[in-house]
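TA notes, week 10

Several of you asked for a full example with nothing omitted. So below is the full record: structure tokens for the whole chain, then the designed sequence directly under it. When grading your own attempts, check the secondary structure regions first.
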């Protein structure tokens, strides 16, 4: 492949660049990635865009055509070009191993490419693509106010596969925990199941020095731009989650038992081995861990299943759906979230405490204390 993504650490944040096989920086896509940084896009969004653009540039090289030539094509020719890109990614030609890609991921990559073209058009570098048509969308914000936006749409996206809604049970979660080879993974799975926190944006961003209230058994989600593992709370959320007595005891034991390795880090979850030992744990490492557990247990699990489990268990306990929604996600506006926390978070904490009283030590964490 001619083009690849590199990251450099600047101001304690990863910055992404696209370089060629002769180690030259590709100016336009790298300028766009810098723009995403400047408008405060999440690091994972910037990273995803970087890889999407590197794939697209490799596709352009195979097709022996340039960006400016694409904009001069007719509507039907542009349409075919971008659909060909979808199938190129679908077949795995963007990877070394030709691994087939899901329709959803293919669409995500093409969406990133379109946003890049739009950026170049707004910069007066290229004209707007013919295949993008203006479409009005309507939505309600968290305060119930209706908004309308004009967005550019493309008719050739793949039909996305139905999501896998297979549920995971408390017995399966316990089996996964039992199959773990270290206390870090055991604690991580238990906390995801008990709190419903998102993986990359929330639980991996927990700083044990600041975000844990040892008196109240709570962990707090904080919005931070500087997390080097790209963990950033979605929509600048600010909320807290209560742990059961047993899981919190295990958390305290984990910090105590691993105090030497945690001493040089502020993150609760860090890498345990290899040249990156002690660095904050990232989402890719967690997915790899879950794949290893799948081979040992024949249980296919992923973080979203654990969030779904959290929501379903609260629903069975009779929680109001609005409370479940807030517990899972918070608000888009920080002011609204803080207001909600002040008025209703204590009620949620009490409801969670009651849930743990009714369902203490579901995953037999006490066995590891």
């Amino acid at each position: 492949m001619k083009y690849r993504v590199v990251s450099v650490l600047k101001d304690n944040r990863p910055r992404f660049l696209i370089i060629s096989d002769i180690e030259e920086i590709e100016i336009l896509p790298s300028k766009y990635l810098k723009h995403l940084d400047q408008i405060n896009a999440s690091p994972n969004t910037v990273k995803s865009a970087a890889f999407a653009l590197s794939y697209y540039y490799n596709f352009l090289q195979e097709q022996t055509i340039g960006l400016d030539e694409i904009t001069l094509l007719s509507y039907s020719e542009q349409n075919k070009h971008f659909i060909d890109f979808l199938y190129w990614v679908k077949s795995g030609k963007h990877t070394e191993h030709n691994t087939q890609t899901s329709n959803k991921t293919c669409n995500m990559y093409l969406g990133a490419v379109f946003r890049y073209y739009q950026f170049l058009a707004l910069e007066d570098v290229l004209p707007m693509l013919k295949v993008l048509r203006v479409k009005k969308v309507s939505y309600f914000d968290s305060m119930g106010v209706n908004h309308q936006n004009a967005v550019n749409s493309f008719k050739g996206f793949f039909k996305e596969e139905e999501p896998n809604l297979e549920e995971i049970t408390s017995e399966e979660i316990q089996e996964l925990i039992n199959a773990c080879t270290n206390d870090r993974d055991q604690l991580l799975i238990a906390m995801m199941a008990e709190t419903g926190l998102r993986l990359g944006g929330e639980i991996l961003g927990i700083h044990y020095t600041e975000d844990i209230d040892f008196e109240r058994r709570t962990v707090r989600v904080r919005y931070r731009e500087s997390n080097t593992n790209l963990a950033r709370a979605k929509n600048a959320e600010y909320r807290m989650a209560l742990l059961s007595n047993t899981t919190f005891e295990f958390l305290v034991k984990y910090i105590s038992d691993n105090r030497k390795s945690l001493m040089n880090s502020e993150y609760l979850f860090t890498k345990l081995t290899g040249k990156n030992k002690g660095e904050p744990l990232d989402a890719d490492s967690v997915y790899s861990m879950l794949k290893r557990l799948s081979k040992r247990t024949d249980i296919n699990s992923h973080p979203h299943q654990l969030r779904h489990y959290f929501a379903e268990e609260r629903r069975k306990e009779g929680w109001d759906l609005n409370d479940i929604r807030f517990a899972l996600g918070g608000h888009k506006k920080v002011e609204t979230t803080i207001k909600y926390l002040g008025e209703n978070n204590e009620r949620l904490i009490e409801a969670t405490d009651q849930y743990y009283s009714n369902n203490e030590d579901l995953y037999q964490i006490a066995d590891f204390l």
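The first strand starts at residue 4 and ends at 10. Use that as a sanity check on your answer.
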